Amino acid sequence: MAEYRTHMKIIGDILATTRDDLQDEDGATVTYLIRKANISHSRISRILKTLVSQGLLEQVDTQGYNKYKISQTGREFLQAYYKFTSFADNFGLSI
Amino acid sequence: MEFLLENILNLIGFLVGLGIGIMSLIGFRNTGSPTLFRLTIAFFSISLGFFVIWAGYMAEDFVIQSGNIERWVQTLGIAIQTVGYFFIAFSHSIKSFFPKSSYFRSVGILPLFLVSSVQLEHLFRSVSFILLVYGAIETMLSYIDNKNKGAISVSIGLALLALGEFLGWYSFVFPESILYSVSMVIKIGGLIALFIPVSKVPLTKIKFDEGLE
Fold it and tell me: Keywords in UniProt for this one (chain B) (predicted)?
């Protein structure tokens, strides 16, 4: 049975991809993130917009299309996300 | 002896609840997770509940000196703790939406019929017992899914708190017996078990980040 992912887990997956699994040093395209994070285009567009506005991701305009890279704030958020995921796991909960 | 155990229990309950509540709050401030927000409310409520009872005992011991804690203070403290247990159970119920077992649904109604009087304290104790049992079962089920060893400790902690609550409630039937002291020792053990895995979560480099709100 497929595991249900919370909104927070999807954000964590996107940030982890932009930190650990980039296509090149310019960042990751939307198409690449869709494939890696396993999420629809409409949903990832909304999430990416939010993450950029919150300063967790940096949007880079490369040859007419956008690429995304994790920011320093994003790295700190991801670190906190992993720590508190294990904290919530102790209570049998997902964040 | 009972008075000493009661003081130790309520002080440990206050400190453990406060500790886990603060960690949950830091987590919520850093991630914005609704789960951590619910855990924050849950553990601050549990902490406050224990503190109210502890303050009641202190006031009785040093100021009022009537030999018995005011009944309304005890009831208020237990009621506040029950709110905390509700939020732990609520977090699990959101995850699994509703307990699938028809047996568990019926157990939810049973203790209300077993209440010997209409005293609010009995009512809150019985509700706390149900919520704690539910939380313990759900946490154990999550361990079976994820194999996170910390979940065993939390599950045992919640189960011991439930057992302590039940024995404390049952001791009203046998006053002057050892049951109430045993229930408090079990609850102290439960609180310690609850805190063990949480204390191992490293909080280095975690800070409040105003930019994430």
Answer: Membrane, Transmembrane, Transmembrane helix
